[in-house]
Amino acid sequence: MNLIIVIVMVIVMSRPRIPIGGYGEIAFIQRGKSKVEARTRFRDWDGQTRLVQATDSSKPAAEVALKKKLTQRNAFQPVDTTLTPDSPFPALVDYWLADLDLEGRIAPATRFNYERDINRLVLPAFKGFTLREIGVARCDALLKQLGNSSYSSAKRARTVLRQSFALAVRHEVLARNPIDHVSRLHKPKRTPTALTATEVNAIRAVIRAWEQSLGTSGPNPDGQLGQIVEVMLGTSAPRHGSARSWRSADATSTSRPRLRRCGSAAP
């Protein structure tokens, strides 16, 4: 009796362990005259081995039906069991936005922009697909389509797609993030424009006329606008705040003047 137990234990211990997401040998059982059942042992994401079976009219058809069922079985452990690779993309959007609210680490304005961008830029293209159907090729095509009309729109769409799919990967709903492999977005080159001498003189004339008159609403002119415009024209300062931060000592210094932020303390 003890010898039989030892032999059985040796047989069980020598059987190779089925990896998670894998299955063992397929067996067939005749169920009536025109029904064949195919069955096998499948190891689920929780490490437990379970019996999976499928029935069809013939042995080959039953085997195909069983393998189809095995490929559709989720081999990953989702945190939320309602979200799987076969879930529609809008379900991931709701799941991601709810997770942002749960963490509460971003500003309300950023949260609003994320929801707006994914609803306007991504959902119209992906709302009919499940998560497993959205791969690198679909994401790459969408971003290129958006980039043809607006680089900014493509960049915002890539941001929300990357973050939503990253959450699905972290929660083991998907195996990879398709945005990690899309082609790089290229910002279109823009030719800088400059004012002509005629345009500059016209601006000066308008400012001079405005500063010499009393307005009917708002504060009266104090003579600063013309000076600010002249400083910006002479130094190529990109913002009026940089021009307003200059001091008279900066204009007479022999060294190259350094623009400071508006309101910053003098050195």
From TrEMBL:
Superkingdom of the source species: Bacteria
Core-binding (CB) domain span: 87-169
InterPro entries membership: CB, DNA_brk_join_enz, Integrase_recombinase_N
Keyword RNA-binding among record annotations: no
Origin species: Nocardioides kribbensis
Alphabetized UniProt keyword annotations: DNA-binding
Name of the protein in question: Core-binding (CB) domain-containing protein
Upper lineage: Bacteria, Bacillati, Actinomycetota, Actinomycetes, Propionibacteriales
Region spans: Disordered: 238-267
